[in-house]
Design goal:
The protein has 271 residues and is of the alpha+beta class. It is built from nine helices and ten strands. The strands form four sheets. A three-stranded antiparallel beta sheet has the order 4-3-8. The protein has a three-stranded antiparallel beta sheet with strand order 5-6-7.
C-alpha cells in the first residue's frame, strides 16, 4: 500500500468512524503504541521551523546547505557486488534504475538534493519506499522530518514510523522507511542538526545584518548633527529647508559631506 492509499484510508476512517473499522491486528498494535508514546515522541516542530526559517533568511546558511546538497546530488550512484573478494560494478542495477526515476514527480537529482538538504538542516532525512505486489520498492518519496515520529520498540528498536499530515496519523512499517541521520550524543533515535551547532554564529550574523539594514534605511539612521534655526520661519520655509538639506546631505552617498552656508543663512547653526 503506497502513501497515497494510506492517506485515503486515513481520510475514510476519519470521516466514517462508525462504518469503517481497522481489522489489521498489527495496525491496531501500532496505533496503541503511538498513543502510549505520544507525550514524549512529538517532534520538536519549533526547532525545525527555526531551521527552515534560518535557511530562507540567512544567505550563508542557504549557500552552505545548497552547495552541499547540490554537490551530493550530482554524484552518480553506483552499485557494486563482491566476486572472489573483488568489488565488481553492477551496471544498470535495479537500485540504479529506481534512483534514476524515484517517483512520478521527482528526478534523481531532486530526490538526493532534498535528502541531503534535510540532513544538513535537521540532521534527519527519511525515504518512504512504496512497494509493488512482489514487495520490491517501486517508488521512493522523501518525508519531511517534522512530520515523522518514531515509535520505539523494545525488541526491534523501532516499532513503526508515523507520518502526520493535516491532523491525520499514517502508520508506516519499519521496513517501509529508510532513516538517514547524523550522530547525536544525546538522542538515541534522532540526528543532530549541523545548524543547531552553529545557531549562535548564524543568528548573530543575521542580527548584525538586520542592525546594519535598519541603520541605513531611510528615516531610521541616527543623525550626525542637528541644524538649529534661531529665527522663526514660516512652515513653507521650514519644509523647504528640510527638503534641501535631505537632498544635499541625506542617503548613504552624501554622508560626511561638508555643509557650506551662504550669507543669507544667518541664524542657521550646525551642531
Amino acid at each position: 500500500m503506497n502513501l497515497v492509499d494510506r492517506l485515503s484510508l486515513a481520510l475514510k476512517i476519519a470521516r466514517n468512524p462508525d462504518t469503517i473499522a481497522v481489522r489489521d491486528a498489527h495496525l491496531t498494535e501500532v496505533i496503541r503504541a503511538i498513543a502510549d508514546h505520544n507525550a514524549v515522541l512529538w517532534p520538536r516542530l519549533d526547532v525545525y521551523a527555526d531551521q527552515a526559517s534560518e535557511y530562507s533568511r540567512s544567505s550563508w546558511v542557504y549557500v552552505a546547505v545548497t552547495r552541499i546538497a547540490e554537490a551530493a546530488a550530482l554524484v552518480p550512484p553506483l552499485v557494486y557486488h563482491l566476486e572472489n573478494g573483488k568489488r565488481i560494478e553492477s551496471p544498470d542495477h535495479p537500485i540504479e534504475r529506481l534512483l534514476r526515476a524515484p517517483n512520478p514527480t521527482m528526478s534523481q537529482f531532486e530526490l538526493l538534493e532534498a535528502t541531503f538538504g534535510y540532513l544538513e538542516l535537521n540532521g534527519n532525512a527519511y525515504w518512504y519506499l512504496a512497494g509493488d505486489s512482489d514487495g520490491h520498492p517501486a517508488e521512493i518519496w522523501t518525508l519531511r522530518p517534522d512530520r515523522v515520529r518514531i515509535v520505539p520498540d523494545r525488541a526491534r528498536y523501532v516499532g513503526a514510523y508515523v507520518y502526520s499530515l493535516d491532523g491525520l496519523d499514517i502508520p508506516l512499517a519499519p521496513d517501509e522507511v529508510i532513516h538517514f541521520k547524523r550522530w547525536h550524543p544525546r538522542d538515541d533515535y534522532l540526528g543532530l542538526s549541523a545548524l543547531e551547532a552553529a545557531a549562535i554564529a548564524s543568528q548573530t550574523d543575521r542580527a548584525m545584518a538586520a542592525w546594519n539594514y535598519n541603520f541605513f534605511e531611510a528615516g531610521k539612521a541616527v543623525p550626525a548633527g542637528i541644524v538649529t534655526i534661531k529665527n522663526m520661519v514660516s512652515d513653507s520655509d521650514f519644509e523647504r529647508i528640510k527638503r534641501e538639506w535631505t537632498e544635499s546631505y541625506g542617503g548613504t552617498q552624501a554622508k560626511r559631506r561638508s555643509f557650506v552656508a551662504q550669507a543669507k543663512c544667518r541664524g542657521r547653526r550646525w551642531d
